[in-house]
Amino acid sequence: MLYNYIRNDIFITSIGGIYSMETYGIEKLGIINPKAVYRNLSPAVLTEAALRRGEGELSDTGALVVKTGKYTGRSPKDKFIVDTPAVHDKIAWGKVNVPTSREKFNAIKAKMVAYLQGHEIFIFDGYAGADPACTKKFRIVNELACQNLFIHNLLIRPTPEQLANYGEPDFVVIAAPGFKCIPEIDSVHSEAAIMIDYEAKTVLIAGSAYSGEIKKSVFSVMNLLMPQAGVLPMHCSANMDPVTKETAVFFGLSGTGKTTLSADPNRILIGDDEHGWSDHGIFNFEGGCYAKCIKLDPEGEPEIYNAIKFGSVAENVILDPETRKPNYDDNTLTDNTRVGYPINYISNAAIPGVGGIPKVVIFLTADSFGVLPPISRLDKNAAMYHFVTGFTSKVAGTERGITEPVPTFSTLFGEPFMPMDPNVYANMLGERIEKYNTRVYLVNTGWTGGPYGTGSRMKLRYTRAMVTAALNGSLEKAAFKHDKTFNLDVPQSCPDVPASIMNPRDTWADKAAYDATAKKLAGMFQKNFAEKYPNMPKNVVDAGPKA
Hints:
Layout: E1 6-7, E2 10-11, H1 26-29, E3 36-39, H2 43-52, E4 56-58, E5 64-66, E6 79-82, E7 99-100, H3 102-116, E8 120-128, E9 136-142, H4 145-154, H5 160-164, E10 171-176, H6 183-186, E11 193-197, E12 202-206, H7 212-225, E13 232-240, E14 247-251, H8 258-262, E15 268-271, E16 274-278, E17 281-284, E18 288-292, H9 302-307, E19 313-315, E20 318-319, E21 326-327, E22 338-342, E23 354-355, E24 358-365, E25 375-378, H10 380-389, E26 391-394, E27 406-409, H11 422-436, E28 439-444, E29 447-448, E30 456-457, H12 460-472, E31 480-483, E32 488-491, H13 504-507, H14 511-532, H15 538-541
Parallel strand pairs: 3-8, 5-19, 6-7, 6-11, 9-10, 10-12, 14-24, 24-28
Antiparallel strand pairs: 1-2, 4-5, 8-9, 11-12, 13-14, 13-15, 13-16, 16-17, 17-23, 18-22, 19-22, 20-21, 25-28, 26-27, 29-30, 31-32
Helix pairs in contact: 2-4, 10-11
């Protein structure tokens, strides 16, 4: 079917007839002969387009369900940053922030643009940053309608007036999953490539249909721009008390519980993943949520469960072929089943996503060794130590090749997305904790009673109770015991939590095995810190574990 008309929310061209490519910057990209160009379509129209193009199917709740193929998680080894004089001294180059040249970037971009000729092009013009003083404009150019619907959900959506006066974007992201790189020709590692040119203000995403690459590319851009504006960018969720408006932030890698714990029906959700902390408060970078679906329980996570409805995009969730009912326990394709939905699908969401200065900071970790306390208190130095260290276990499916929990240290609880030196972000956090007297806790959502394979995952209701006590201040009324191995202050009681689980050693049948395992993990902390952060101040180093 050929379209040949314009209406308020859609700009479409037919083959051979371009009305105004200049309006949406298509000609600047070099896409001179698209089959059709669509801009900021409504979720209903995007869903129709995705179904028409065979990109997915509807669940019984009306959510669009798609399969992402080979890539069911992020592919960090395929990420590159263009090394140019303008950004060279700002980037912490290494195994995470891998340099590439402008020539290689431009060569792949030219091939992607050529590939997109004759294709339908879906554009979303939106914003990152709910604080107007920090907002950045992002133009997302998609090959797939389902990915355009995804980013429509995840970014902040402009009003009709804002869209009419949108102007030039601050950054452009081009996502073409159908274009496959040739490693030996394109100087990349696989058929996929995620490349950021901060100076040219362009991101390329080739070869991967996993929509998380688009979301995290926007985050990576914000993580370079915000510190230069005096704003601490954070890989965290955030919520606030509906009465006092006191805010809290939750740091943690995927699978540690950021989305689950922040989506508390008794608090107002500011956002589930990416925020900035300015001098006058925190704000959500996004306008939506990207939640894990595996083993999703309507009783334990009703907010997320009920958000999977028409307008949402679910990735790699298995549907019953007859009833189209999702089976959230089915990990046939991946453990990293996901859903992206607009934040207003959460009934108690804060719109716009802004809050005050955080009263509480919580670091979430999923300890597969089973030796860290379920909750412990940190002073400023210990907070900086654990912020920089970012210990957790990568859980199955979050990245390609991860099939069971793997202990890892991810700087700042978001190392793949933080382009600058860790000291920049750590110092900004330490300054804020000290200035605002913010309370900080380390919460283990991982294993208890033994390591992975022997012990069991911490019960969600216990973690929720501990987090609630930390937020309302009642945890501070407990007696605290110092854990010498991990250099942590551990509360000995908490409302609605068995005292028997507060000290992890008590949960192990074999106490000698616990001691040996705890010593092993403490040694891993020390080794990681010494190798990665040799220039960290002594007061921060001394706040860490003592093997």
